[in-house]
Design brief:
Number of strands: 7
Shape: globular
Number of domains: 1
Structural class: alpha+beta
CATH superfamily: Mog1/PsbP, alpha/beta/alpha sandwich
Order of helices and strands: HEEHEEEEEH
Largest sheet: 7 strands, antiparallel
Strand content: 35-45%
Helix content: 25-40%
Number of helices: 3
Length: 147
Amino acid sequence: MAAENPGQKLNQKVDKEKGKIWHPLLLASETPAGTPAESNPKIVLGVVDISGEPNVQNAKDFESSVAQTIVGRQRTWKQVNDPFLVRLGSKEFYRVDFKIDDLGRIRHKAYFATIERRYVLLLTVTADSETDVNRTLTLAGLPQAGK
């Protein structure tokens, strides 16, 4: 009997109940969506309800299981690093980065996660290059990879 993958179980639940679990709070982009631009970095802030997921005890557990599931299901996603601890203000977050091949266009995505009262606060930064991700992180006052 194969070991159960908590990330797979969480992902199945997200697929079934996305509207109940994922709550987007903010989307900010450099230029309005649909505007012709070489690159349009964006930041998305949202929360994920994990009250029904007792196996997820901390943000590192969440990011590790979601990263494993995403890379397993989305063959165009490549994980760049293991989740690592960063401090945003007074809160500890875990960060993990991905490269995504979107029909030949490479995108870079940085995920930051922390848990508060069985909700994951998830912040993502997406851009067409690692340079644009780092520039967006710097402008937003967020740490870059390895910093």
